[in-house]
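I'll show an entry:

:::
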Amino acid sequence: LVASGGTYLGSRFFFPPKEEPRPQGSLVAVQRGNITRIVSATGFLSCQASGEVKFSKHGRIKEIVGQEGDYVKEGQILAKLEDEKERLSLLQAENALKEAESELESARLSSPKNVVEKKERQLRERELELKLKRKDLEDTVLKAPFSGMVSKIHVERGEIVSGEAVSASKAILRLIDTGRLFAEVAVDEVDIAQLRVEQKAQVTIDAYPDEIFSGKVVYIAPETTTSQGLVVVGVKIELEKADPRLKPGFTASADI
């Protein structure tokens, strides 16, 4: 027993056990971060403003300025009506005003007070009539109510149009404002609690599937709607840049 014990002690002294290799690794500092969740939805592109542009009076089309696809600025002339009658009426109103001014001047020199007052009333009437005739002439010119693109022209030169409220087919043209474009998407009700205005989004367009357009949430509808049996909430995303290739109505998908 002694011998065997000495042999064991000697082997432990001269041949110590090998140390196990320590696991290799690296140390990193713990940092607080955000967990990102993506909410996806589909919809379509829309523009800031659009509308059918009409004359406020009836008449015959004298000129259509420009063509479909043209970009116009606010106040730019779009079309004109024949205006010979309006110009003649304006000239007659100007002559009538001059005559009323002359009569009033003469009355102030030699006529009694009641005559002068009558001439003053007549002058005011002529001034009002002149103002109306000028407006009537101005209404023969159709100007762009906002900057945008002429997407459709409904009439031709020589066509008679009405100044009353008419259907879209009788409007002069359709104007769309493509300076600001939006993706209007329908978000499932279960995801809407995750969304806030100003959140960033990435939008893809079916017409250009290989490109991503950046944007941000600018509007969340206050009430729900039903789409294909699902309860959804409308969300509007404004694109950072208005690409002229993008057209209102294009199918769009968004990751918010």
